[in-house]
Amino acid sequence: MAKPVGRPRKQSPRRRGATARDEILDAASELFTRKGFATTSTHDIADAVGMRQASLYYHFPSKRDIFITLLMGTIQPALDLASDLAETDETAAVKLWALVAAETRILLSSNWNVGRLYQLPVLFSEEFAEYHEARQRLEDIFKGLAAQIVGEDDPRIELPFHMTLAAIEMRDNTGTAPYPLVDDALPEPSVTIADAVLDVLHTDLPERRTERMLELVALVSDERGTEGTDSADGKAGR
């Protein structure tokens, strides 16, 4: 008799996620945000998912890789948006408002409060340099846009990025996203924080700012999706 194909679980799936990889990230998010990085083992994560520890390594080579994946998931989307916003004719105020709203939206839409990971002492380790470099790039973009509004010598340019992180303290960590992602609306706290950022910089709020931000995000997503398809088609034709 032929043996079953694939890597068997110890039991049926018990985490949220469309794939085993998603389930691992969900379990790791809970454990890292509640227990910390150092006291969470890959065995703990595998057990929480209901899979063998060896099967977990099929998806992630190490606990560090799971951790960095969660961290970059909160940074990379905003970096992608910033890159595409740079190519538009929108004002610095619109771009900054959109970035603040986008980043807070990410922090508020996860099942677990992964923003708490930013506060763990382990992040001072050099093994997470990839995250620190990405975070610094994003912070510099925030500062650059603010500088276009108030000038490079104004100390307020430091505020937008750190005000954005207030979203971490404005949500719980119960395993249910307080503001699940939707295409046609923003979380109320995202709008509040983005408005507050421009208020601190003493600049007027853009008209139709929520609608414009959602349109920009949709445009970026569509363009990146097309690029991915074109890339795949190009490879297939080679």
From TrEMBL:
Protein name per the record: Biofilm operon icaADBC HTH-type negative transcriptional regulator IcaR
Signal peptide interval: none
DNA-binding region ranges: 41-60
Disordered: region residues: 1-20
Cross-referenced InterPro entries: Homeodomain-like_sf (IPR009057), HTH-type_TetR-like_transc_reg (IPR050109), HTH_TetR (IPR001647)
Biased composition (Basic residues): 1-18
Record-linked Gene3D superfamilies: Tetracycline Repressor, domain 2
Assigned keywords, A-Z: DNA-binding, Transcription, Transcription regulation
Boundaries of every HTH tetR-type domain copy: 18-78
